[in-house]
Design a protein that fits this description.
Layout: E1 2-4, E2 18-21, E3 26-31, H1 35-46, E4 51-52, E5 61-67, H2 72-76, H3 78-94, E6 102-121, E7 128-135, E8 145-147, E9 172-173, E10 181-185, E11 190-193, E12 201-210
Parallel strand pairs: 1-2
Antiparallel strand pairs: 2-3, 3-10, 4-5, 5-6, 6-11, 6-12, 7-10, 7-12, 8-9, 8-11
């Protein structure tokens, strides 16, 4: 099921585990049933790994470090990769229904500290992108937000006052998510966050590619 998403909708009226149309683009939000168990697995894995402030995405982020090497977590914990790919398949079924099978091309575990920001950005060379929110305090940690992707410098071509905000004219979109949620979205949909107010915002981000039918 797809639904228009507007900022005037409260989280209480939005059902979980569904695909939303934003701008419109397909963004799915899935809650992981055994999240607490998986979170403990990953936190245990993190204790033996180095923090890396000199990572590839440092140019678009501030106060964000990665844990271990890219893809290392999913290589060491294949059950987590299987879980994420199961959700990718659900997202694909709800949205584009491609016949291809999928694999995770790259993944990175990130820890954001107080004052962290992630500049609006996009990804290339992938079909879907995803973020698993492993540790997220909704009162103090920044939510991930999406912005309308506009290629043309002439947008809108004619600015006219609107009566209300809709899924088609809104400039920015928030899809309800919390700890234990996996968001899946187009890689070229602008996304990022700002004003993170506390330490230990932990996310596992990943990019998905097709691997044939």
């Amino acid at each position: 099921m797809t639904n228009q998403l507007s900022d005037n909708l409260t989280e209480e009226v939005l059902h979980k585990n569904q695909t939303f149309a934003c701008f419109p683009q397909a963004i799915s939000a899935f809650d992981v049933p055994n999240h607490n168990e998986i979170k403990q697995q990953i936190l245990t894995w993190m204790r033996s790994k180095d923090l890396n402030p000199d990572h590839q995405r440092r140019m678009i982020s501030h106060n964000v470090v990665t844990v271990g090497n890219d893809n290392e977590l999913l290589n060491d914990l294949p059950d987590v990769k299987t879980l994420l790919l199961d959700l990718v398949n659900k997202h694909n079924e709800n949205a584009w229904s491609y016949t291809s099978r999928f694999d995770i091309q790259e993944s990175y575990l990130e820890v954001a500290s107080q004052g962290a920001i992630y500049a609006p950005h996009e990804h290339s060379n992938s079909l879907y992108s995803g973020t698993y929110f492993l540790n997220l305090d909704k009162k103090t940690h920044s939510p991930l937000k999406f912005r309308r992707h506009i290629v043309s410098t002439h947008f809108p071509a004619l600015q006219i006052e609107c009566n209300k905000e809709t899924a088609f004219n809104q400039p920015e979109c928030y899809v309800p998510h919390s700890e234990g949620t996996v968001l899946l979205y187009p890689p070229n949909l602008t996304h990022g966050y700002e004003s993170n107010q506390a330490d230990n915002r932990i996310t596992l981000s990943f990019n998905v590619v097709p691997i044939g039918v």
